[in-house]
Amino acid sequence: MPVIDAQKDADALTLTFVAEFDAGVERVWQVWEDPRQLERWWGPPGWPATFTKHEFVVGGICRYHMTGPDGTKAPGWWTFTAIEAPHRLEFDDGFADRNGEPSNAIPPTHAVVTLEAVGDRTRMTSVSTFASLESLEQMAALGMVEGMTMALGQIDEVLR
Q1: What residues make up the domain containing 9?
Q2: What is the CATH number of the domain that holds 136?
Q3: Per the structure, how many domains does the chain have?
Q4: Is 39 helix (H, G, I), strand (E, B) or coil?
Q5: pTM of the model
Q6: Got the DSSP string for 84-124?
Q7: pLDDT tens string for the chain (160 positions)?
């Protein structure tokens, strides 16, 4: 499994995931840049993602939904705040209403993803920062640690 570490830091209001992949940085970057590749791993197994909008530029937005085994749709959104190809991207990440528009039910997080070469492999570090301890605990209770770990575990297959 590619996830080598997952940490919840209540003081810093963060969840951090570290994963390593048997591919170069440029190849791993593509799993973020290409929405069709992103769909193959974003969301845990059994909850595949469909990206209906993917503007991979600073200020660009993403709209997507994950579909559960019973057909339930869980919509979400991103707004890219920084992109430094192929090593770093940042985005605000939140839940959306049924029309795909941002919802304030749970405050959005800010994600920072970095890719670095480790020999001929790539280490991906993803840090999500939460608005409050309450929202961090709420997302942890919803299974974000397990879900993200399983989602990241699907990237190896995409890279093949």
Answers
A1: 3-159
A2: 3.30.530.20
A3: 1
A4: helix
A5: 0.94
A6: ETTTEEEEEEEEB-TTS-B--SS--EEEEEEEEEETTEEEE
A7: 589 999 999 999 999 999 999 999 999 999 999 999 999 999 899 999 999 999 999 999 999 999 999 999 999 999 999 999 999 999 999 999 988 888 888 899 999 999 999 999 999 999 999 999 999 999 999 889 999 999 999 999 999 9
